[in-house]
Design goal:
about 375 residues, alpha/beta, 12 helices, F-box domain-containing protein, LRR_dom_sf
């Protein structure tokens, strides 16, 4: 279809066409389970809206397209959502609060911020807390959008933050305070990226009931502190952990033995270095020897930093200790010609050929 006339006329015709398409969609589609709402059309006012929204299980909304009053109307007829995804969240919204409160079995919530705006949405956090008996998955794509809360049945927590702007350090400090007092007793996994608040994450772990199975931390802050405390907290509170990806300093190697001896369900272990450009001369030998001596039989995947450097003898002792066991993969993170030598690669190739390990990135 070609729209004619001036810009205003074009917009009016386009809006009218969009309205008629949405009206037809709402009235004729009775069993839609998932909706991605990216229009400013008031879908709740169209004929058939009651049936349409009543059957929804998953709803994704671009918040800058839908006003509070429309969401309040939706809250009166949409009560069976299991999954709610919100984009461009930037402020408290009473209609959104009503929509969350109306849900009977809301399980998964994902929040994406409006990146040009900052500010904590306290009302939204309180609304989610009122659904703590049902929510078991929470994903936050910013630390400046919502205070964490206590969710008694939360199983999976994801926090992805890669923002950096003026006064961001103050935002982080506020978020860390919320993180430290939030409680997720049923937590089984958490994935935190772009943050390095190991002390607060240790406190979060201490407030769980010992069911954590997966932990993944990604940060670029080489000045992060309390990595050893974090490992020690895992040792004392995560007996069921299976996958761990975190950071160590050489002084933290003393905690690895107790980790391996107390966490006997470990399957996948990844230790990276915070000091990306600092290569310690063979300091990694201690880590390799500890892994060789104390690794549980369940551990089949090991990844360690290139920065600690490893002697040829330690490399050979490590691989020899896994003879007759099931070591599926061994990786040097960001492996290159500066982190291992040709002699290292020959050793790895030998144990690959002999079937001691199945996969490695140490053979170029």
């Amino acid at each position: 279809m070609v729209f004619e006339g001036g810009n205003t006329a074009k917009c009016d015709k386009k809006n009218l066409l969009e309205r008629e398409i949405c009206k037809l969609f709402v009235s004729q589609c009775k069993n839609i389970k998932e909706l991605n709402w990216e229009t400013s059309q008031s879908l709740s006012s169209f004929p058939g809206a009651t049936t349409f929204f009543h059957n929804l299980n998953s709803l994704s909304i671009k918040m800058d397209h839908v006003d509070s009053n429309t969401l309040y109307e939706v809250a009166q007829i949409c009560i069976h959502l299991k999954e709610l995804t919100l984009y461009n969240v930037s402020q408290n919204n009473h209609g959104l609060t009503s929509l969350i409160d109306a849900q009977r079995n809301l399980k998964n919530v994902s929040l994406y911020p409006y990146y040009s705006k900052k500010g904590i949405c306290k009302e939204l956090g309180e609304a989610l807390t009122r659904k703590s008996n049902t929510i078991n998955y929470l994903c936050l794509y910013s630390v400046n959008i919502i205070p964490l809360m206590s969710l008694v049945n939360l199983r999976h927590l994801l926090i992805y933050n890669f923002e950096n702007y003026k006064d961001f350090d103050e935002v982080i400090k506020v978020f860390q305070k919320y993180l430290e007092v939030s409680k997720f007793p049923k937590l089984q996994s958490f994935d935190i990226r772009g943050l390095s608040c190991f002390k607060e994450m240790a406190t979060l772990i201490e407030n769980t009931e010992g069911n954590i199975r997966e932990i993944s931390i990604v940060t670029t802050n080489k000045f992060a502190k309390n990595t050893g405390m974090f490992i020690e907290t895992i040792v004392n509170n995560c007996p069921k952990i299976e996958e761990l990806s975190t950071y160590l300093e050489p002084k933290d190697f003393i905690y690895v033995e107790s980790l391996l001896q107390n966490c006997r369900n470990l399957v996948d272990l990844r230790f990276d270095s915070l000091n990306f450009n600092e290569i310690h001369n063979n300091i990694g030998d201690k880590l390799l020897d500890t892994l060789a001596k104390f690794s549980p039989k369940s551990l089949i995947s090991i990844s360690i930093s290139r920065n600690w450097k490893y002697s040829i003898d330690a490399f050979e002792r490590f691989f020899e200790s896994f003879r007759g066991r099931n070591l599926r993969s061994f990786f040097i993170l960001y492996c290159d010609i500066y982190s291992i030598t040709n002699e290292h690669r020959l050793i790895v190739r030998k144990y690959l050929n002999e079937g001691v390990i199945k996969e490695s990135n140490c053979v170029f």
